[in-house]
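If you are new to this repository, start here. Below is one unmodified record pulled from the training split, so you can see the exact layout before writing a loader.
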Amino acid sequence: MSGRAHGTRFFLAEWYRGELNQDEIDRIAARLDESSQSVSADGASVRRVMTMAVPAGEWIFGIFEADSADTVEQVCRHAGMAPQQLNPAVEDRVRGTYRRDDRTLPTND
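And here is the target side for that same chain:
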């Protein structure tokens, strides 16, 4: 995850949401993006890096890059999604973006 803004860190937000489907996941991601933009417009540094859902377990995870956990909390609450867990994330690299229909999986070379 290169290109991080100076003074920001990554945070992992977790929510338990029953009956997740792709449309609901897309709506959640859009609300979080809109909220991130709104909070950023007020002077904070925050963006949603990615969202990952585990529909079988009814969990959804959001990775945010932000200047503080409080900023991420504000984004989530503004989106109507107060996180059930919010923790600093261990930093790693994301090599690329893959879609469910990609024929090959990424390797860790």
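Two things worth knowing about this chain: The chain is about 30% helix and 25% strand. The longest strand covers residues 46-54.
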